[in-house]
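[Target chain]
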Amino acid sequence: MAAATDGAEFPCSLTLDIPFPTARLASIALQALGVDKELSPLVRRTLSTVAPEGFQDESVLRTKYVATTNRMLRVAVNSFMDSLALVLEVQEQLDVDVLAAGNAKTAD
């Protein structure tokens, strides 16, 4: 049996890098989104946090998808984006102090 990320079995792929103001918010998003597993065996997803080039803090949420067809990839990514939008909305509403502090740093 081929590995789950074998290019022949899963020829369609996409990597999304979503930047967050802080590593803490990226980690929270990772934890919130990581609990929902892909429903289809035709799609695989890995989530991680990474540091942007030239930085040390892991403030980027990296999402890698592989799928058997472009259609399956599109459906999975659309669903992920809906979930991500909800996580971002909750962070914006409930983590106002962190976002405000991040905006103050960029204004300096």
